[in-house]
Design a protein that fits this description.
CATH superfamily of the largest domain: NAD(P)-binding Rossmann-like Domain
InterPro entries: ComplexI_NDUFA9_subunit, Epimerase_deHydtase, NAD(P)-bd_dom_sf
Order of helices and strands: EHEEHEHEHEH
Number of helices: 5
Distance between the termini: 40 Å
Number of strands: 6
Structural class: alpha/beta
Strand content: 15-25%
Radius of gyration: 17 Å
CATH architecture of the largest domain: 3-Layer(aba) Sandwich
Number of domains: 2
Shape: globular
Oligomer: single chain
Organism: Thermococcus peptonophilus
GO molecular function: protein-containing complex binding
Protein name: NAD-dependent epimerase/dehydratase domain-containing protein
CATH class of the largest domain: Alpha Beta
CATH topology of the largest domain: Rossmann fold
């Protein structure tokens, strides 16, 4: 199966990328950096929304998983315009969208409002799924290490705390 994995160089994307490769899928990752990832085809993009739609149209993937999310910067571009372009191009493929717990079109918080607007675009696709995780923590993530240091989760057992 051919999968376009946007956000495939990020924290969650790294785990999903490894799983897809292990299962024998062909993985294509659009990236703004000139990097090579073993077992993956990378495609250089500037980050403009229409590039993602064109990539879907050109590659005819079986699925697109969109993990793009920003905590600062252009929320509308990342959370609404890019999903809109991907959804527009997903005529015969499945679209999986990573949103956020708390996504709400009426939210005063731009992050949650734009995540909800992105979901609205994804729902236009015939075959889609939307995941709404809450806080995601894990090894090699700064927030994870800060949480351990601050003892936010005092009973959390990790390889380094045993």
């Amino acid at each position: 199966m051919r999968v376009i994995l946007t956000g495939g160089t990020g924290f969650i994307g790294g785990f999903l990328r490894a799983e897809l490769i292990q299962r024998g899928h062909e993985v294509v990752i659009p990236t703004r950096k000139d990097i090579a990832i073993p077992g993956v085809k990378t495609v250089r993009v500037r980050g403009e929304p229409e590039e993602y739609g064109r990539l879907v149209e050109e590659l005819h993937p079986d699925a697109v998983t969109n993990l793009i999310g920003v905590l600062r910067g252009d929320y509308h571009k990342a959370h609404v315009a890019i999903p809109r372009e991907i959804a527009r191009a997903c005529n015969s493929c499945r679209l999986i969208q990573m949103s956020a717990l708390g996504a709400d079109e009426d939210s005063e918080i731009p992050y949650f409002r734009t995540k909800a607007l992105g979901e609205k675009e994804v729902r236009k696709v015939k075959s889609y799924a939307i995941a709404r995780p809450s806080l995601v923590l894990g090894p090699n993530q700064r927030l994870f290490h800060d949480a351990l240091k601050w003892r936010i989760f005092p009973n959390l057992k990790t390889p380094s705390s045993r």
